[in-house]
Each structure stands twice: as structure tokens, then as C-alpha cells.
Amino acid sequence: MRPIFHPALEDIKPEAILYALSDPERVAIFAKLAGTACGGTCSALAYLGDRVIPKSSLSNHFKVLRESGLIRSERQGVEMRNQTRCAELDERFPGLVRAILTAYGQLPEQLKTG
What confidence score (pLDDT) does residue 10 get? Predict the structure, then answer.
């Protein structure tokens, strides 16, 4: 099985974060993920309102989020478990992720207080 690529914290670039969060669907996926304490599976995050994101699009969205350094993914059986790297990113780029999510009106309660 092919290993999952996660950039090291020092290799994460702000332009990669800005690109990843330039797509409203990725922002919605990331915000839902940031709003859960234990992360989520790809299939559980496929629903945006009354709309379902096709699996091929969803896979690409997760790849972009992961390769930009916004999330960490781990295989658990046949599912992929995803968690945000908000705490790490806030150390490296204080307030960046929060500001982007706020601009979209997607800031989860967990990030408002933290």
C-alpha cells in the first residue's frame, strides 16, 4: 500500500494553504472537520447541506487539503480517518486558518475560543 504524504510543519507554505482553502467545497469540508473533536472519515464528510460530493471529487479535495498541510490522514481498515492540523498551523502561521474560515463565515465553535 502506498504511504500517505504529509508535509513536515516547516515545509508548509502559506500559498499552499491559501490555494487549498480557495475552493468553497474544501473550506466547508475543512470547517466540518475542524468542528469535530475526533476527526472524521471521508464518507462522513461527503455531505454539504443537501448535496453529496462525488467520491472522485472528494478524494481530490482531501488530497489537496492533506498535501497543503491542513489535515493529517490515517488509514483505519478500509476507511481514511482525517484530522486537522490547526494547532500546529497556528504555531507556524498564527491566526491564518482562523482568518480564512472567518472570512468564509465557516469558523467552527471549537476554533472561536481556542
Answer: 96
